[in-house]
Amino acid sequence: MKHETIRGWIEISGLPKFSTIIIPFMLGSVIAWSEGYTIDLPALICSLIAVFLLTEFCFVLNACSVYTDYSKLSSGGRLFRGDASSLHSTGASGRFNAFETGRITVEQALTGAYICLVAAIPFSIVLWCVLHTGPLTLPLGLTGILVAYSYSRGPRLSYSGLGELDLTIGVGWLTVFSGYYLQAHCVSWVPTLAALPWIIDVFKLKLLRELPDFAYDTMAGRRNLAIRLGKRRTLALYLPLTLASWASYSVLLRLGAVYGIPLLALPTYYTAKSLVVLLRGRVLEREEELNKLVRDAFQGMILIPVALIGIFCLKILAVV
């Protein structure tokens, strides 16, 4: 039974999606090193453990909230057969299947999520009191907890059209800024400016990923931004947001990150592929076209911080 529960926990955690938190956090650290700050290895290890635990808290909490909401739409408090796999936001990773098959209950998952939250607190205290990473260490950690909790619990921002902003702040900005601060131990505009392409793409993809679950979210009473705008207006934002993200690449030149600019060709390629799918004009009529659009857009998005890490690593090597 314990073995099945562990398997269920792993499934609902959605470990591959941890890349959306860990990679931008590492980007912030690399940016700090490129600015001449010494690598603080103990702080890096300690902070990565804390970030991992808080990411578990965030993802599992949201999976429990989404599953609970959707299960209310079906008879017996369970999703209809096949519904779990059709939900893009969480079902595509198989996380709902863990609930459906009984490997883990929502109550067990919630208990585990809050255990992860409590377990992260000592690491934050060590960073602040022992490793002296700066006075903003605890406020940044508390902000991360608040962002994660507010999305699906408490004020439930994902229901009011503010969830997109909440997620953009948490995943887009806070991850990079925290990674920078815990290495540099000071505040700077550099991580925010460097992360602009990533921040814009996080907001864009969050809007896009709401489209496959549009009908379910509507029935569940969610009034996220995609539902408020409608499908066509949401899709209409994709091109201008993409152009804004590409335009923000120019900020890197002002930050002295010149040598690795060609590395951005890879995320640009996948984003361009998604634009081709969009411009074919069949996204709202054909589910496979929408899934391809989301898939290519996600690949383009996650490759942005990967490319930026390479760019700032080259900046470090250029100085050496």
Topology:
Blueprint: H1 2-13, H2 19-34, H3 41-71, H4 83-86, H5 95-100, H6 106-130, H7 137-152, H8 163-184, H9 190-194, H10 196-209, H11 214-219, H12 225-229, H13 231-236, H14 238-247, H15 251-254, H16 265-279, H17 287-319
Helix pairs in contact: 2-3, 2-8, 2-17, 3-6, 3-7, 6-7, 7-8, 8-10, 10-14, 10-17, 16-17
Tell me about this structure.
The protein has helices at residues 2-13, 19-34, 41-71, 83-86, 95-100, 106-130, 137-152, 163-184, 190-194, 196-209, 214-219, 225-229, 231-236, 238-247, 251-254, 265-279, 287-319. It is mostly helical. The chain has a single domain, classed as Farnesyl Diphosphate Synthase (Orthogonal Bundle). α3 (41-71) runs antiparallel to α6 (106-130), α7 (137-152) runs antiparallel to α8 and α8 runs antiparallel to α10. The N and C termini lie far apart (55 Å). The model is unreliable at 76-94 (pLDDT under 50).
Short description:
The chain has 320 residues and is an all-alpha fold. It has helices at residues 2-13, 19-34, 41-71, 83-86, 95-100, 106-130, 137-152, 163-184, 190-194, 196-209, 214-219, 225-229, 231-236, 238-247, 251-254, 265-279, 287-319. Residues 76-94 have low confidence and may be disordered.
Measured on Cα atoms, how large is the radius of gyration? 20 Å
The topology string of helices and strands comes to: HHHHHHHHHHHHHHHHH
CATH class: Mainly Alpha
**How many DSSP H or I helices?**
17
Largest sheet features: none
Which architecture would the CATH scheme give at its second level?
Answer: Orthogonal Bundle
Shape: globular
Extended strand count? 0
The percentage of residues in β strands lies in under 5%
Average pLDDT for all residues: 87
Number of separate structural domains: 1
Which fold name is given in CATH as the topology? Farnesyl Diphosphate Synthase
Distance between the termini: 55 Å
Q: Which structural class do the helices and strands define?
A: mainly alpha
Helix content: over 70%
Low-pLDDT ranges: 76-94
